[in-house]
Amino acid sequence: MTTSVHGPAEEAAGPQGPPAGPPRSRRALVAGSVGNFIEWYEFGVYGCFATVIAATFFTPAGGGEAEALVRTYASFALAFFFRPVGAALFGRLGDRAGRRPTLILVVLLMTAATTLIGLLPSYAVIGAAAPWLLTLLRIVQGLSAGGEFGGAVSLMTEFAPPGRRGLYGAWQSFTVALGLLGGVGAAGLATVLSEAQLAAWGWRVPFLLALPMGLGALWLRLRLEESPSFRRGSAVPDDVGAPGGGPDGGRGDGRGAAAAGAAADGPAVPGVPGAGRVVRASAGETVRAIVLGAGRLMGWSAAGYTFLVVLPSYLQSVLDASFRQALTATVLANAGFAAAILPAGALSDRVGRRAVMVTGAVVAAVTAFPLLDLVQDPAAPTVAKGLAVCAAGAVVGLMAGPGPAMLAEMFPTGVRYTGLGLAYALSNAVFAGCAGLVITYAVERTGEADIPAYYVAVTCAASALALAGLRGDGHRRALRD
């Protein structure tokens, strides 16, 4: 049986506490988004330059190109598997010390690691130490990226004005698109160089650009205020605050306190019934909430990385496309993704998270094979291929827009940073971080060019089933303190 900590009065109250004024909300939106932009900018650059990185760090004399690419994606995947560790580590810190100091720390780590990748000597210079050092830096990036999402989404949704939580949360996903487009754009600028210049030093420039961007993000976060939800919840005793209400994003009958355990009241907020209430829940309920959240994000993670990140190297290595052709396809896919995110988030504030996200997952599952067949068809018009990859990105945007707010609504303030961060990190580690490795390895072993379509169709179908359990009016319910 699922539960909730809200009664009717709380559902009508909107986000708990006095609403943050427009300047504070906008500052939180910008500060929460900027670190996420840097994170995904780096991932976009890494995806575009995967073949160059493979040759630079993973190809000793006599090594094969396919083997080097698999090792590159293994390093890519390894960083993703450290994201849950980062989500747990920084999530705990963010739920205890605050969103602001934790987000400052993670953007410092991400900026340092990305800049150092741009300075790292190649295999030809330092031998076997090169891939190990690259992998170490990828691990640091994975840890910091794991701590970024939970804090940024917590911050943005906790500052969101009433009725705009989906739109505010969608900015997190929108900066994913902007970061990927920024990475692709930086890679595109590097193509003005000759192939020899690109391989020798040109690929490093986009990584080094993370340094000034990171310093700008640091300045913004130093000016940030702590979220009102955390300030209220910080007065609650340490032994209170595991996710209550069950792993259903708000489904229930208003009897969560009785079902989950005794409730503790935080500081009172005038005019908001029940604000500050935190409910204890069993470890099993917490784990179920995190696992279910990861399942609901499965389609977004898998389809997003397949279409937006893995596509360039796939087009080059399997379909013999040129670097510029692969880059153009990636730009179009990310443009469609970016264009759909904010409208999808805003729409979910009106019709609910479930309707929008299930639609995106089902459409992605149904169109995966026709899309790939069109891209692979040498006789298909170039314009048709461009429109197809742009539409594929837009479908992913239908899931990505409402996704952050959906996760924030599954956890109370005391564990929101940790809970939603872990759900997101686990989904990305399993279904996104492994996408390049699984697809490249499977295509190499089987010779089946439709492997990406199988991957997207299966994961999106499973995600649609998990999303179907969302309650239809969850977007109208208050975030739980």
Strands, helices and their partners?
Layout: H1 8-13, H2 22-48, H3 50-57, H4 65-81, H5 83-96, H6 99-119, H7 123-126, H8 129-159, H9 165-190, H10 195-202, H11 204-208, H12 210-222, H13 228-233, H14 256-260, E1 263-265, E2 277-279, H15 283-317, H16 323-351, H17 353-376, H18 382-400, H19 403-408, H20 413-432, H21 435-446, H22 451-467
Antiparallel strand pairs: 1-2
Written account of the structure:
The chain is an all-alpha fold and 481 residues long. Helices cover 73% and strands 1% of the residues. It has 22 helices and 2 strands. It has helices spanning 8-13, 22-48, 50-57, 65-81, 83-96, 99-119, 123-126, 129-159, 165-190, 195-202, 204-208, 210-222, 228-233, 256-260, 283-317, 323-351, 353-376, 382-400, 403-408, 413-432, 435-446, 451-467; strands at residues 263-265, 277-279. The protein has a two-stranded antiparallel sheet. Helix 4 (65-81) packs across helix 8 and helix 5 (83-96) packs antiparallel against helix 6 (99-119). It is globular.
Give a quick rundown of the structure.
The protein has 481 residues and is mostly helical. It has helices at residues 8-13, 22-48, 50-57, 65-81, 83-96, 99-119, 123-126, 129-159, 165-190, 195-202, 204-208, 210-222, 228-233, 256-260, 283-317, 323-351, 353-376, 382-400, 403-408, 413-432, 435-446, 451-467, and strands at residues 263-265, 277-279.
